[in-house]
Every structure is written in structure tokens, then in C-alpha cells.
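Posting for a labmate who doesn't have an account.
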Amino acid sequence: MQIRPFELERYFARHEFSAKYLLGSSDPEAMSIADLLAFESGSEDALKKVWLGYTESLGDPALRRDIATLYESVTPEQILLFTGAEEPIFAFMHAVLEPGDHFVVHFPSYQSHYSVAESRNIEVSYWCGDPAHNWTPDLAELPKLIKHNTRAILICTPHNPTGYLFDRESWNRVIEIARQRGLYLFCDEVYRGSEHNVADRLPQMADHYEKGISLNCLSKNCGLAGLRTGWIATKDRQIYNQLATFKDYLTICNCAPGEYLAGIAVRNIDKIFETQRQRLVRHLDLLAAFFARHETRFSWQRPRAGTVTFPAWLGGSALDLCDRLIAETGIMLIPGTFFDMPGDYLRFGYGRANFADVLERFENWLIKAG
């Protein structure tokens, strides 16, 4: 079966670098190389000495040691570096799952969470968040979705595109459900660190479940998408080896300057998280006021984490709205169509530095458009 086009990424390919203003992006304000080097004295000179040959396929050992310090009990040998987060998702769907398997996916979701599996004749069931309850999925529904051939469950927390964050009790219950049935539990944690209240931050799956796979990167929580640095953490040696072997058919190894710069980011990650968190909270307050002024146009509940939110648009077709908006104003907003979500939803991203200006421009257009 041929994999279907990645609708969201095709939309970004059309508009992201031509649109004047981005109001739907999931990555927060980016950092420059100079910003990153400023964290550590002598780092600029050290960067100039980075060797530009091949790097180790598992990832730079020093970077893996730094990343392991972010976990409670994961060791460097249980960290596997990838190019971004998309690559390990693709690898997992090919190296771990097989045609005829069944897979349960937290939904709505980033398309690669399910389309890659579907392209391989893997049966996918959707564990849906409830928009009436701030996108909370029904824990009682999850066991009902599991079949005799289910191999894995995938969850995303903090969640894209809704901003939903599991509470600790619900998160533990998902682990319990997976453990009772011997299932792999793939947890997309790329937005971890963007919790609006630091006290709400969850542990990482790889620390708490022996068949857990934690996915992370520096794009969504740090604003360092240009480094293309992602990783998985798992204590399951078989899964680790399967993913490492499959990576040989993908990028083989990471970019040497990127790994060096990623090390600086990881060693200073709490400072980066806090800078981004403060901006997110400020911008979410502006967005809350905006939705309060336009209650007849949107149905929205405030998320507890992440860089995005997913309100319902009550004015007709969300896709038509986004097409009109970018044509008339140059503002890019993301329709829920590209998340295969029934109904008319919009993904707002509120992590960029110019968010207040862009939101004001959108509101002015919305009022004039009636």
C-alpha cells in the first residue's frame, strides 16, 4: 500500500515560507546559534573545532550522556539519537510493527502517528479525546479498543493539536492497561517542558514502564527545530536494537555540528524551558481574552500545556476560513481537516514572539469579514 500524502506538511510546504504571518505553527520562537552559544563560555571556539566526518550511528556518546541526565533511571546506552522526531516515528512503525498487527493511537493526532502504520496494512484504532471535556480521552474506552493482535498503544502528552495533558492518575492507568496486556507503549513527549504550570509536568514513559518508548526532540519545547535532533529512550533492549538497525536505512547518523549544539541545549534545558514557558503563558492569556470576545465564533477550553490549542470554528468550513485568511491577509492558520478530525476545528500556535501582533491582525480581519 502506498503511503498517503502528509496533508499538514503539504500545506506547510505551500505556505509556511511565503505567508507573512504564522498563527498555526507548533514550534515556539526559535533561537539563533549565537543565542545557544551564549549559554557556555568557549563554545564558539569549540564549535569551530567540530570534526565534520561521520558521527556514531547511535548518537554522540557525550550527547547521549547529557540526555540521560534528563531521565530518572535511563542510561546513555538506552538513548538512541535520530534526525528530528519524525524519523523515529517512521522507524518504529517499520521496525517494531508488522502487517496484520493492531495499533491503538491517541486521536486527533499528528498524521505520521497513524498513516505510516496504515500504509503497511497495520490495523489502527483511534482512542479519541472528547472536545466537550477539553479533549480528555475516556480511560474506560481504551481496553475496549484492544484486540488479540494489538501490539502497541501510542499516546502524545502534552498533545498536538489540542494541548491536552494527562494527569498523573490517568497516565498511570494507561501504563497499567498496557502492562496487563504486555503491550508496547510509545509516548510522544516532544512537547514535554511546555507545561504552563511546571508542577503539572509528568515523568517520562521510559522511566516508568519496561516496554515504554519515550520520544523527544528539541524542536517543540526549545525552539530548536533547525538542529534536527531527536531521540528515543527505552529500557527494552530488543526494541532499541530493532530501531538502531532500521536507522541504518535512514539517516545512518546525525549531523556533527547539530549534535554539538544540541549538547549545549540539553545542558541548559531548564533555562530554555522557562523562557519559552513564560512566553506561552503570556500569549495564552491573550488568546483566552480573544476567545472570550468571540464566543459566538469559537468553542474553546484552555489547555494546560503545549504550544497549540484546537478550538472549534462555529462559522462554517474551517478549511475555507484558512484559505480566505491566507489569501486576504497572509496569515497562516491550520484547519483541523489536516488532522483527519471530523467537524471544523482550527489549530492555533501561540509560541512565536510576534503572536500578539498576528492575533490582533487576525481579529481585525475577522471583525471586518463579519
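Reply:
Got it, the C-alpha cells are right above this. The two ends are 45 Å apart (CA to CA).
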